[in-house]
Write a structure and sequence with these properties.
Length: 304
């Protein structure tokens, strides 16, 4: 069996290298309207809460899908989940509480704790996956505070919606809906067609400067990482990964610019060589003149 990155660690890389792509995810999940060039701050999320069997601090970042972002004055916690987890609501309650505690305000026995927005993105939801993650705090006086956020089911999103809503961070995980077909090598032609769709759209987005060169290249590599994780070396792997390829896509304008740079470099090098030749010729001429002057001075000295 191949050792490949899985879904969670792929998202971990996206949030670290391309956090800009998560702006559209925030906009879609929480009905926000942040511009694509909004400032995004990736926040550390550490927990001093001791888990069962632990001897020290538990680090939330050990859960690689965990992600806390700040955009403007708002905070967002995103949890990417491959499968159902019956403890997910407890985990979210813990994460949000830790964040609120670490950023609490107050003194003299009074404290205000701000709970961040949160959502759980399910890559492979099942019929048992809850549509909402709900947390209820019940206090000794009987007061109850209930809060819930809608979960994201990637299987609900079509490839067209992902492109239309600029949810490019979801592209690597889209292929998970074809996991059975690709892993069993049966009826996976639709998966190949969808991969080709995303490849073509990504190139178009790069040409229109919607995606940077690094984003384009890395998204293609992330797609292939997930494909390899699913196929695990079977006969469908090479066919599927060849669609995205392993090289940087070069648009026509980029090719022309590159050629222009190469031609300019060649022209500049030729100019330098020509200038060197001219200088050599001038040096020779100057040497001849100095030699002639020395000869004339010698003749004059003899006459005197």
């Amino acid at each position: 069996m191949k050792k490949t990155r899985d879904y969670d660690s792929t998202f971990q890389t996206i949030k670290t290298k391309h956090k800009r792509l998560l702006i559209a995810v925030i906009n879609d999940c929480f009905h926000k309207h942040y511009p694509q060039d909004a400032m995004v701050e990736l926040l550390p999320a550490r927990s001093p809460l001791v888990g069962e069997g632990s001897q020290g601090e538990a680090d939330i970042e050990d859960h690689e899908s965990d992600c806390v972002l700040k955009i403007g004055e708002d905070f967002y916690l995103i949890e990417v989940q491959t499968y159902d987890d019956e403890d997910m609501a407890i985990r979210i309650a813990e994460y949000t509480f830790i964040f609120a505690r670490d950023n609490a305000e107050g003194d003299q026995g009074s404290v205000i704790m701000d709970i961040p927005h949160f959502t759980v993105i399910y890559i492979k939801p099942t019929v048992n996956t809850p549509r909402y993650t709900e947390i209820t705090y019940r206090f000794p006086n009987g007061q109850m505070v209930k809060f819930s956020e809608k979960n994201v089911f990637l299987s609900d999103l079509s490839k067209e919606e992902i492109i239309e809503k600029k949810l490019y961070a979801y592209i690597p995980f889209y292929i998970a809906r074809y996991e059975h077909e690709l892993s069993t090598e049966k009826n996976y032609q639709k998966a190949l067609e969808d991969l080709a769709y995303f490849r073509d759209k990504m190139v178009e987005l790069h040409q229109s400067k919607e995606l940077t060169g690094d984003e384009l290249t890395d998204l293609g590599n992330f797609v292939n990482t997930i494909v390899i994780h699913i196929t695990d070396g079977n006969g469908a792997e090479k066919e599927a990964t060849s669609i995205m390829g392993g090289t940087v896509y070069e648009t026509e304008s980029e090719r022309l610019r590159r050629m222009g740079r190469e031609e300019a470099r060649e022209e500049y090098q030729a100019e330098l060589e020509e200038r060197d030749k001219e200088l050599e010729e001038r040096d020779k001429e100057l040497e001849e003149k100095n030699k002639r002057i020395a000869e004339l001075e010698a003749m004059l000295a003899k006459k005197e």
